[in-house]
Amino acid sequence: NAGVTQTPKFRILKIGQSMTLQCTQDMNHNYMYWYRQDPGMGLKLIYYSVGAGITDKGEVPNGYNVSRSTTEDFPLRLELAAPSQTSVYFCASSYSMFSGNSGVGAYGYTEAFFGQGTRLTVV
Amino acid sequence: DQQVKQNSPSLSVQEGRISILNCDYTNSMFDYFLWYKKYPAEGPTFLISISSIKDKNEDGRFTVFLNKSAKHLSLHIVPSQPGDSAVYFCAARGTYKYIFGTGTRLKVLA
Q1: Whole-angstrom Cα distance, residue A64 to residue B109?
Q2: Strand pairing category for B32-38 and B86-93
Q3: Which residues of A touch B51 (CB under 8 A)?
Q4: Which among A121, A6, A19 has a CA at the least distance from the CA of A79?
């Protein structure tokens, strides 16, 4: 059981280039998330998905795209890399028993499990 | 607008003493709160959680307290150990997603 796996671990991009950050989970979680962490800014949500074929924007979606064709995979696409996208990116997953339910107490969903992160530098 | 706030960016504590990390939130609809620990170059790892129907949850050296009227939660680590040195994130579960604070860097001095 590998949990949440992200690739690559490090990447340097030139301005205007594009790339896809890969994320896969083997826990059969229905919810998946992409966060970015900037120094002193905590974790900001980019996009999330509540199941295959369903995605929605988080706090900072501009410049990114996602897709969720399978339960396991949730790739994040950067189309035209900009220096402002220099950050550490984390993929996470969790399970909710009631799809679409924000949950009540500690029942019906798990905590979020995170991958190791991808450190991206745009120069 | 920051819905989950950790106002102390850093904290230093002597080994063996208590570490207290604080977190405030603004949305009274949040019903589940979590603490994560993060080491450099690793992803955050889950530490402990608490449901809004409780005011305290313990797991070994870690205790989380929730004060709903004040919209405040705290993480107590007793006794603190050098291996506890890390960044700690407070999080709240909102609709479909987890909302994180900015983190507190804990340094436990030997």
Answers
A1: 41
A2: antiparallel
A3: 105-106
A4: A19
User: Has residue A98 got a pLDDT over 70?
Assistant: no
- First-to-last C-alpha distance (Å) of chain A: 36
Please determine, for residue B86, whether its predicted confidence score (pLDDT) is greater than 90: yes
Nearest CB to B97: which of A48, A111, A115?
A: A48
Token duo for residue A84? 């402002």
Report pLDDT for A43.
94
> How many angstroms separate the CA atoms of B106 and A38, rounded?
18
DSSP code at position A118: E
Q: Do B94 and A102 count as a contact with CB atoms less than 8 A apart?
A: yes
Cα(first)–Cα(last) distance of chain B, in Å? 38
Entry field: residues in chain A: 123
Cα dist. A57→A15, A38, A46, A50 in Å? 24, 18, 6, 12
